[in-house]
Each structure stands twice: as structure tokens, then as C-alpha cells.
Records
---
Amino acid sequence: MKISDKFNELKKKREGALIAYICAGDPTPEGTKEYVTALVRGGADIIELGLPFSDPTADGPTIQAGIERALNGGMTPDIYFKIVGSLKVHIPLVVMTYYNLIFKRGLEKFVKDCVSFGISGIIVPDLSAEESGELAGFCKQYNVDLIFLVAPTTTESRMKRILAEGTGFVYLVARMGVTGARKDIAASTRELVERVKTTTPKAVGFGISNGKQASEIIRTGADGVIVGSAFVDIIASGKDVPERLEALARELKEGIRAAGK
Amino acid sequence: MKQELKLTKFGKYGGQFVPEVLMPAIEELTEQYEKYKDDPVFNKELDYYLRDFAGRPSPLYLAKHLSKEYGVRIYLKREDLVHGGAHKLNNTLGQALLTRYMGKKRIIAETGAGQHGTACAMAGAAFGIKTEVYMGARDTVRQRMNVYRMELMGAKVIPVKSGSQTLKDAINEAMRDWAANVETTHYMIGSVVGPHPYPMMVRDFQSVIGKEVRTQIMEKEGRFPDSIVACTGGGSNAMGIFYPFIEDDVDLFAVEAGGSGMKVTEKEALHSATLCTGEEGILHGMHTKVLQNKYGQILESSSIAAGLDYAGVGPELAYLADIGRIEPRNSMDSEALDAFHDLCRLEGIIPALESSHALAYVKKAASSGELGDIVVINISGRGDKDLETVMGMKK
């Protein structure tokens, strides 16, 4: 499913999107299918499935730990695409990974694999708009979305460039830094949402962990909420993982619905 | 031969592969560095610190006994005599001064064995700038003395407990800190690696080494050397001595760590010979050569010399190797140890194990004639820090 179709569908229902991240293969390749299914049952609208890289410099310690578990569990890009191909979900899937894995596989092959295994979008946190030309070309050719991040520090000139390059949705980094818990998210998020002038949907991520926060984010004018660390924490605990993933997804989605659109 | 570039690149290498949160800081740094690098006031002040604080120029010393033993005329560029015992201070003084010119109040850095961290602590103290150094928790235990040295000079050492608790986790943590505090903080990278402008900027600050050699060798020999040999991990001492000679008829040898052999498994390499065996990839913000498996996962590298133990290499070195301007070579742990003992015994100089790799290559290659008649070896640091390692090997 195309990301834009999903956002259009949600728009008609006057609803924001829940975008759920987990790292594929965490802690073993076998669990991923069940976890994704649980997230979808709980109400996730888009799944962002991490493809683990050995040196994840843009991720916080929680997700870094998940990535390490996945790599120790034997995760590879080949297994990743196999897992993705076996998923029977009817929502958009997005791959999040670092540029070296794409580069090594070959940019065109990677994008073609995305198409053949049912991935609609690519997020590469260490690929700046400046360096993205070649990958963007293949994404356009094969009709795969290339999703970019914007941060509170992003300058106006960079903002224009990023918004011109990106498709699918814009990933707004809600606060500075990459880690940990957070206090007041509303004010700085509202400011950022207002600064990002585009018709492409805006999804806000980094540090959101409960329904109340999700609700707040949607009220700032965002079209979607991205949640990662909170899900990865559940996987790390190893206890009742599918049930708790589903429950958290449900809580987040209820918070999003409560905010309306 | 100066780079045929698209501004941020050396041929196809280099670039800026960093998270968006860091891009504005990188842009600001690029702009500020361009503004000050040729500024006479900035350079006058930097020269002052290099001379009166760091003790430059470092001598170029004719190693008579070693020359006789190895069969080629050998000059040693004595970076081991620079304050702190290594070339690292050349770069940290430059960046600390730039930090002040940029109006930033805080320096952060990552360190593995503690050499770069120590040089940061020195520069931070010299300029009165608060300095915090991220170091893997395991490394803080292995390198207790360096932790203590940094603390004595007023730096705060932050042990990193995530992941493998070594250098790469320290890099991750430093990048997170920078992302969260870009307005007030400068991130001091210790080698010619990372996103543009770091490879260029660190090269420029280290080029003082090669510039001095140009003058010194003319005084002593009335001509340039036939070859220059430097050890290469990230490559800052190599670029520093090579760069001023890049357009001259001087052969440049980058000697990497051959570790315990040129073998590789799925997860690790027994060496750190990135220029010799690495493949193109993207790591730590740059397109360069890296040690990686068939999927692009970065391998753990290995070397007896912590300063060479890195799975990447400076992008300019990758470029210069591709176009044939530098010759990548390697020396094994055991060869470096041999050469280490040679220099101690014959010349009364204890070199760093890193620099010993360069010595070892000269020992191997001198008789083949490929180094010519006069060779300059960069003794990038002194070996006092390595004595425990060497003693351990003797047992």
C-alpha cells in the first residue's frame, strides 16, 4: 500500500496516523512477524521496520540495543527481505536503515528489492539531502517514497531543499538530541510543525511513549506520530511481548483518535 | 593534484553523511573554518600556541645507527617530542582556537585509548574552555592513567556503558551530545575522518608537520627526500606529513596495521588495513574505504596499536590511494614490535607502537630500493604509553 493512500484514507476518517517502529530480527528473525502483526492489531497505520546496521550513530541507546540484539540474532538484509515478503499486512511498510547497507547492496537493487517485497518507503537517517541525489533518482524511477527528517535546527534554506526532495511523509524530529525521556513536547513541536510548510503529511517522532503525548502531538497540527523506543523497550523486556505491543499501540492510537483532525 | 572536487569531496570520497540534526552544525563549522583558516590574526595566534605551548617546530633527526642497520638514510620527524608526546595536539590546538573564535563555550570529544582525549584536555585547559571526553567504559579501565591525566588537566571523562563500551560507542555518544547541544558545543574529531569539513580541517592543522619537514630537509640535505613513510589508522599524522609534498616528486607510503594477519571473518578483521583491503562504504559521516562484510556491516578491526585500530580511513587517503599518489602498505604486530626495539636500542628513542609500524615497513622495504636513498619517517608519538603492552609481549 502506498503511504499517500494511507494518509488519504485517514484524512477522510479525520484521524492521525500511528507509525510504529521496531527493529527486524530483534531479538531473533522468527519473532518479527508476530510482533508486526500485534502492532497492526493494536492499530498501527504504518510499520517502520528497522534493518539493523552495526554502527547506528543516529539512534539512541534503546534502539541501539535492539539493533545489537538483532545482529547477534543473525539478522541480515537477505533475511530482512524474506521476513518482509512473508508479512501479510495491508498497511504501508517503511524500511529504516543506514546508508552503507543500501550502498553495499547497490542502490538500484535495494530499491528494486523494496518494490518486490512490498516496502513503500525508505528512511535513511545518515543520508543528508545533499548526498541523496542518486538514491532519490532510483526511488522516483521505481515509485518508492524517500522520507527525510527535519529538526528544530534545520535552517530555512535546508528546509526548502528537504521538502523538495522528500515524499511519503516528512519526519519531524520533535526535539534536539537523539535519546531519552522528555518533558514538555508541545511547544517546540508546534513551532516546528508550523515551520514545515508542505502538503506532504508531517509525522513527529523521537521520545513519544504514551497515549497522552500522542494526543498532544496530533493537537499541534501533526498528521502522524512515530513511536519507536517505547516498543523496543517492550521487546527488550522479553515479557508478554506481543500482548504488550498490541496494548501500547492501542493506547497510542486511542490518544491519536481522541485528538481528532 | 589538489582535489578535483565538488566542494565537500575528494574525488568520490568524503561528503557529509550525517543526521539532519547535525547538518546545521556542520554547515556552521564549514563556514567558520573557511572564514578563519587564512585569517592572519587567527594564524598568528595558532602559531604562538604551536611554538610556545606545544614546543614546535619538532626536530628532524638523522638516525645514524638505524640508517646503518636498515641500509637507507633515515630522518625521523620527532612528533614524539611535541607536548603531550604525540602529533595529536597540533589538531586540538587548532580546533580549540577555532572554538573560541566561533564563540562556543564547550568542547566535546571521543577517545579510544585516550591519546586524542588527552590532547583535547590540554588544548581545553590552554584556552580555558570546558572540555568533556566520552570514552568507552571498558577503555576507561584499560587506560586508567590517561583518564587520570585528562582529569588532572580539568577535563571531565564520561564513561560510556552502552554497546561494546569501546571507541565506537564513545563516538555514538559524543554525536548524540553534539546533536543535543550544537548551539554551545564544538565536537573535536581527532583524525582526518568524519563528515566534511573535518578531514580537510584536521589535515590543514596537521600539515604543520610536513611544512616543517620541507624546510628542515632542505637545510640538511639540500633536496627533498625520496620517500616519506607514516603509519595510518584514521590517517592524521600521515596526511599531516604527506600533504605539503603532494605535488612534489616524493613517494608517500601509508603503513597500516597488519595486526596478526590479513584474515577476515564475518564479524572481525585480524588487522586494520583499510586502504590495503577495505571496500568502498559509508561510515561516520564519510564515503571512504571501510572494513565490512558482504552486507555492509562494519567489522571489528584489530591492532596492537590502539591508535591504528579503526575500520575506516580518511577519505582523502582513500582518494590518493585510488589515483596512485600514495602507496598503501602494512606491517604486522610482530614486525612493529621488532622495529620498536630497534629504535629504542639503536637510537635511544622509544616510539609509539603506531609509529613503529612505519619503522617496520622501512626495515622491510629498504633493501628493495623502493624507498630511494633518503627517507623521512614520521615518529607520530612516543611509546611510554605502550610499555605495558610491550612488557606483556615479552613474557
Note: Residues 1-5 of chain B have pLDDT under 50 and may be disordered.
---
Amino acid sequence: MKVDVARQRELKWLDMFNNWDKWCMCVFQVKLRCRKGIPSSLRAKAWQLLSNSKELLDSNPGKFEELEREQGDPKWLDIIEKDLHRQFPFHEMFAARGGHGQQDLYRVLKAYTVYRPEEGYCQAQAPVAAVLLMHMPAEHAFWCLVQICETYLPGYYSAGLEAIQLDGEIFFSLLRRVCPMAYRHLKKFKIDPILYMTEWFMCVFSRTLPWSCVLRVWDMFFCEGVKIVFRVGLVLLKQMLGSVDKLREVQGMYETMERLRNIPPESVREDLLVQEVRL
Amino acid sequence: MAKQYDVLFRLLLLGDSGVGKTCLLCRFTDNEFHPSHISTIGVDFKMKTLEIDGIKVRIQIWDTAGQERYQTITKQYYRRAQGIFLVYDITSERSFQHIMKWASDVDEYAPDNIQRILIGNKSDEEEKRQVATGQGNKLAKDYGMDFFETSASTNYNITESFTRLAEQVLAANKKDLDLLRASVTDELNLAALEEEEGITDGAAASQKGCWC
């Protein structure tokens, strides 16, 4: 992207930030700008405004520290501790055992279990919180996580995991309409949606797509919600299993699962993905 | 393309979060150990072909998320398995205590003739050991299972334990296997079997050598 275009976009976003309440009314315009990609220098702030987590943060001063001071349920803390070094282990922020990234991750995840003791901790929350921490301080990331768990993907992380299983079924029936070829292939090899979409959806593709795509998907997700997750999933299946040639490469349950669990980065291009998702 | 094999079956790795299920699997199928890896969310699987008593055995090993709430998902796959690894971490007393719960879930959701084996992983971390070898042995005996202490990190007892479970599954399904041998008498039949590979993933395949 040209420097002047980037600069212009930043200015537009800064103007939106300054008049956020007014801009909130122009849903369509904001949506369009999010689809173009939020300038990386302003992404953290935009995510917090779009998700309303900024409002939660401002209306709950001191709450995060208060949650941090609580002891927490050892049942959750035990699992959280085991997961700290298993998120983005090659990202410089999370690579070091006991480093700042891992410490902050612990603070955020633990605070959530104290905030919602009946929900506790779900392992898929860790990569989501980690992505947030790459962009913002722990307290901000915490409120953003709260919004994702409660407003964007309600029930996804709850005991029983019913919401994700239900969405898996819905996703599969949408696939039938959107790409019958992929649908028939998955059906033929008895590959239930839950086998490939659990990680895609629960981690909002943060473990699935090349990083530049992850950010673009999250930009749209914060603006438009869970429907983006469905659409990205459908686009991926269409790209992986949507033609005779592609199906020929994955003749078997194992081959298909391998392809869906390790999507070749060169097969997803940021601009094309976003373009497809819009349709 | 897929290699030729005589039989295909499924094994399942179960156990608490962080006991090393994914590492055991990586070591066995790819002979790799990654100290840095990510937690398993949902279900994953890998394949490997072994030769046991002259039979080419293709095994599909399912790796599962250890956290309790994922069990609503993973339980659905118990019934598709012929063999189960119950894995604990020798440096975690808690993971060992939970084996009983895992075993009772297997009893409830898995097929009756399921073969089980007990694995105490991370045997290289002797200085942090919380579960004595004798305790593992005793538990395995009580449940009528074989027992191995393993280390994915140092590649200790990995092939041994996977092969043992595969042998047990073979033995338990001996009758079907003899049927298979009787049916596979020449190359043509083998090729036909191979062609069926994709489709044989279902119940209809039982007499063709797939017990899934």
C-alpha cells in the first residue's frame, strides 16, 4: 500500500475516533472501512471501540485489579498454567517461559475465571487472549475478551460446548447451499464439522490463517460479528475443496483432514480472502 | 497416494490436559519432539503403517483435547475406536488420579471389546516424579491393562507401547482378520480393497478388513 493512502486511512480513522458516537450511526461506512483493513497503528483502539470493551473498561475502573487480587479457583489456574507456553510459542512475546507475554496471559485468563466463576476457563480462550495481548495491555485485553466471550461468541467457551457444536451443524448446512461439492466430499468421508471447525471458530482463525489474514479477519469480526467467522470458514472450504482438481488431491478422510488442519499459507491471499468474504 | 495395507483401525489418546498426548503422537508418527508446540483444541489425528506378524496395519491415531469440557465432543469418537491409550504424566499426581475417571468414561462410551493400555509419560523428568512406577503397575493390573512408562522427549518406549496396543487390537479382532486373509488371496483382491479405501471408512467395511 502506498504511504499516502495509508496515511489517509489513518486520518479517516482518527477522525472516526474523535467522533465515535456520531460514526456509530454510520454502520455501513464503518463496515466498509473495517473491510479495507484497520491501519495497524490504530488497530487496538479500533477493536476496543468496535467491541464496546472501551466502554466496559471506562465504567469499571479498578475492577481488573480487584479480580487479579482474588485467589482464583486452583482447578482453573492449574489448566491455565499448563497452557501458557502453548500459545504462539514462536512469537517473541510468548516464547520465553515466564516472560511478560505469558505472565499477562495468565493475568487475563485468571481474571476471567474470577469474573465469571460459573464459566471458568476454556482452553480456546488462550489463543484469543494472546492475540489481544499482542495489541493492547492486559486490562484492555481482559475487557475485550469479556466482550468476545459474552457478546460475539456467547456460549462458545462454556462447559458442554453446545454452542460450538450447534454452530458446526449450522455451518455444515450452509455449506450445502454455498458449495455442494465440498459438502458432498466431507459427507462421503464422514468428516463431521466438529472435526475441523472447532479450532477455526473457537480461536477465530488465529491458528489457521497467515497472520496478515488473521488481522483482516479480526478487523471484520469486531465490526460485523460471528457471521464473519462463518463466511471465512465457507470461503476456506470452497478454496480447499471446491473443484474437481482440488478434490483429487485429497481422496480420503486423512488427506482431507490434513488439508483442512494445515491450510497451505500460499493458498490464502489476504485481499482475495476479504473479497470473497464480502460476497 | 495412500500406501497399501491389509487392515485399518483407530486408536485414541485420552488423558488430562498437558500430559503429553500430542507429543507422544508426534514422536511415534514423525519421530519428532517439539518442546514448543500448541495446545490441542478439539480433535486431531495422524496415521502410521506398522507391520505386525506379516500384516500391514494402518493405524489412525486420534489425539484429543484433554480439558474436561471438550469431552462432549471427543466422547462421540470413542465408539469409533478399537484401542485406547490412557495417558497420565508421572510428574502429576492429579493426572494419575484422573485415570480412573477416564477409564470409566471409556467403559461407558467405547465398544465392549475395546483394548486399553496405560501410559505414564514424561519418564525422563525423574526429579519431578510424583507417581511411582509401582503405582502405575498396580493400577494397570487392577484394570487388566498393560503398562508402559514412556518419554516422548527421549523416545523411550514409544514404539513399544504403540506396537503393543496395535498387537492387542489385532489379537482381539483375530476372527475378522482370518476372514480378511481368506478373502485377500491374490493381487487383484488387494487392489480392489485398496480402491475401496475411502468408502470402506464405514460399517459396511467390516468384512473387508476395516473395523471402524
Note: DSSP finds eight helices and six strands in chain B.
